[in-house]
Amino acid sequence: MTGAWGYIVRTSDGAVVLAGAGRLSSVRDALCAEMSACLHALSACSKQGMAKIRLESDCLNLVISMICLRLVFCFRMLECLFQ
């Protein structure tokens, strides 16, 4: 299956500062396309030197996945600190 990704980066006031879109020649499902958009957006922000980023999405599955990944990362950091 093919698909596409897209993102918009805005300031805290809502002004658009970056945007991007592209095609996916092969994508497993909508969540993979959403993840691709997220990765492209984060990469673009990083290239512009942006460090303080708030990520928003209308894809609940992506949001839940990101929260779970953050929790796993935090727990692993705590495990390292208290070993």
TrEMBL record:
It holds the Pfam family RVT_3. Residues 3-63 form the RNase H type-1 domain. One of its GO terms (molecular function) is RNA-DNA hybrid ribonuclease activity. This is RNase H type-1 domain-containing protein. It comes from Digitaria exilis.
